[in-house]
Amino acid sequence: MYRFLLSRQWVILTVVGLVLIPVMVKLGYWQLHRHQHKVAQNQLIARSLAADPVPVSTLAAPGRELPRRDMWRTVSATGTYDTAHEVVVRQRTAADEQSIGYYVVTPLVLGDGRAVLVNRGWVSAGNDLTKFPDVPAAPRGKVTVTGRMMADETTGASGIKDTKGLPARQVMLINSAEQAKRTGRTMLGGYVEQTAPKAPGNTPELVPEPDHDSIGPHMAYAVQWWLFAAAVPVGWLVLVRRERRDRAAAAAKEAEEAREAGAAAAAGDGGRTAEPAGSGETEAAGDEATPAPANP
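The chain above was modelled as a monomer; its predicted structure follows.
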């Protein structure tokens, strides 16, 4: 009845189904973990933004990688800008998430001689990407900057390739270690994403606060993958039942056709056998009916 399951076609179909089920289940858990990561990150951002500001040196130190728990914490730093070593970071998006331009990063020299990188905001790229863009000058004299503490950018964490051979004072990543080599100054690890004070005319345009409300579609994707995994055995059973039904119907049809053909053949053989017998009887009857000749 189910011997067709041993055919090559059904063996391949069954093996493919058995492979797809654990793969889809794993993909569902992958999306679940992404959902959980997003939720945890949103909670971390919300806590960090709500925390009281602290001096930047409380969280950052030269050569120290910023712990994830300190990301987005509000910090303050007081010092003077080192505009001679200002750089722009290529391929960055404005607050509208469409316009491409530069981040303006300027070292802020603290009272103890150490420096911290400050992302002062976004400016338009202009028409000539080989030239340093028009950047409003940083404030002179001693200033106090407030902003979000961020970890150094790396290719591994950001996915941004650290392209070499760029025009002067242009970089791809905000990285304190690289800028420490370039300037010869002692740099605190990480950088400050400025939130105050706001520049005149909002140029550079301050980087907006990170989104920490949306959770994305990851949970929905996880449920979809698990539904797909559940659908595989259900679909397999439906196909098996359909195949069995179709094969049974075909076998019944063949049997019926064979019976009809046998009956027709039997009927034909019976007719041919009865015809010679009837002819003989007629001839016999004719002989009996012939009168005997009269005597002369």
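The longest strand covers residues 100-110.
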